[in-house]
Amino acid sequence: MKTDRSIKDFLAEAEDILETANQALLSLGSQKAAGRIDPDVVNGLFRAVHSFKGLAGMFGLKAPSDLSHKLEFLLDELRLGKVDLGQELLDVLCETVALLGRLVQQTGKKQQPEDISTALERIDGLLRAKAPVSADRSLLDRITIDRGLLQVLTEYEEYRLKENIKERRNLFILKISFDLNDFERGIKDLNESLKKNGEIICTLPTAGAAGGSIGFTILIGADLTLEALTSALNTPNLSLESVPYVEGPKVDEPRPGMETGALKSVSNTVRVDIYRLDNLMNRVGEMHLTKNIIGRIARDLRSVQGFTGLSAELHKAHRSLERKLNELQEGILEVRMVPLGQIFTRLAQMVRKFAREAGKEIDLRLEGEETELDKLMVEDLADPLMHLIRNAIDHGIEQPELRRKLGKPEHGTVSLTAFPRGNHVVITVEDDGAGMDAGNIAAKAVQKGLLPADHGLDPVTDRKELLGLIFLPGFTTRETVTEISGRGVGMDVVKRNVSKLSGMIDIETEPGVGSQFTLTLPITLAIIKALVVEAGGQVFAVPLSSVLEILQATPDRLETIEAREVMAIRDETIPLLRLTTAFNLKTGQERGSFYIILVGLAERRLGLVVDGLLDQQEIVIKPIGKRLSDVPGIAGATELGDKRGVVLVLDVESLIEGALRKTVVRS
Amino acid sequence: MKNVLIVEDSKAIRSMIRMSLEEAGDFFAVEADNGFEALRTLPTRRFELIITDINMPDINGLELIGFVKANPSYRNIPLIIVSTEKSEEDKKRGLALGACGYVVKPFKKDELMATVKKALEG
Predict the structure, then answer these.
(1) Is B58 at the interface with chain A, CB within 8 A?
(2) N or C: which end of chain A has fewer CB within 10 A?
(3) Nearest Cα to B59, choosing from A452, A204, A270?
(4) What is the pLDDT of residues A242-271, one digit of tens each?
């Protein structure tokens, strides 16, 4: 039935829906790669296509209507677990949604819609490969639940409930009441909280506790216990009850091939909560401490008994323990590692969007997607990388006409590469755009009051320091900041996010040629080797991965240049930082000799002056409380397992930065 | 004027239903684009008819029907379900809960109005 409504209404709503569908597809792609699919995302995609179908039907548009009808059917089968989310199916989903997009455009331009028969056949092919579904009526009998609630479940919700029962997840009934005038905020906040802690299977509105109020009864599936869920929700005035299972212990069913594999893309993987891996890592860290104690006992015994009898045995056992512990640690680390490709795909899609918005043609090159990084770190990288890419597109790459005039190819190139380097992962974001000029940056910084006018920094010799100014808070103002997901992000936040991951960020740029940002990150933050040192009577841990060299020196080796202490090491002059100065500690007696811990990367090197070297050991960095977390120079704390108790772990990057900055910058 | 509540998350379909009702003469249609909005709107006036989609996020049509039928103030309001061909099972459940009619998307104006008429007479 055609309506008289302008086709513009169709276009507007259709584009909105397809945008939602594309976001869902993106999420599905990365979830599939991670081996864990969120049923809510599949359902969201289904609903989007369902809406699209209804919309196209109402406007009498045959091709989009027929195609989305078929696609919706496929998605319904998918969300009900009747087909697998294999790679081919995912590809077909992406291609079909893209085709729907083109059909919408063709409608808008009053062009002939392209042929959809191939797409329809491909979907039919996938549907023919449907897995037979075994009858599982009895699943609902496994729980004791109000019939009234079961009656209002849609087929999809019933399927989700059965899946939860199959997985023997804990089921809960939550009841809460709100004032009718403003219940929406309350229920939406509650839903968000619930989604973080489990799955909302259904929501039934009910009469409220009193007149003028409305109640909700929510059926939830979660892995948490009743107590844990109650405290996670932290919401007053709700009632939370467990839904009892009729059978006692879990019944192990043989899992028939494809049926249960429907929403899991790989059948021999296990879903693991990353925080459980963190716990395992902590145990390994503690085992290292115990192993060290055993090592010390072995050494002490050897010095008394020599290398015979019990002493030799203990020594051997200690060695063996050390080896096996390292292997265990490697094994757990491996489990935590995920390929960067996960976020690369997401970023690739964002590039298309940003390019479109900026009106520029951008080629994105990706390399090293298989490079792996700790799962927890990968998630935290998405934002800073997104911002760097957006910056490159918005401010780096010039407009096509200008690029043509400059003899550059009209398509700007943004490269995202990753590769492992020892215990680190290096990620670069490079563009062939306008590059940055150190002099301009200096001028802008002065203009913003971040640098005094008489700073005396030279654009050539002090280039690195000037380039570093872009990371100052306040450098990027609101006019130039582009919003990512509603938040304005400046380069200072990018740097802070990278530092939080114990990483470093470096810039290389040439005006007219382009820029390259290099992020260097440790492959994991879970457990690292550290050098334990002593300065001013206090003990510190220095991540060994940042340590280039350790030297012993005497006071006569030090020189002072421009009021800073430096030392000549082979042919280079290295600036020094006394930890006692950095942390305001009493220096005590003047010592005859001390140690220099050389840290840093490339030209940005620093010698940390400490009084003594104590040990080298594996540590687990734990976060420190809020009050200390913004103190520069401190990355966290750790326990050394002996009477020294809790020890601070140094944030080498911020120490380097603080020491190498030549001028005092106004904040 | 008969007040009709339309609960449907697609704007185009909602508008189409509203226009069909208004063209027929003595209906005043109020639109809600999701279950929460429907809950907020129900107490605001006396509704003679509710037309609701089944497949909606947060609160689906069946849950809305369940709520309406359990509530003495609303349980006598006739309900029409808007469904799709594939959601045969869901449609059955809606009828079992007490809806008195349905239309299947994409539907023609005449089909809708015939179902509305039947619901109001029934």
Answers:
(1) yes
(2) C
(3) A204
(4) 988 886 544 444 434 333 334 444 456 677
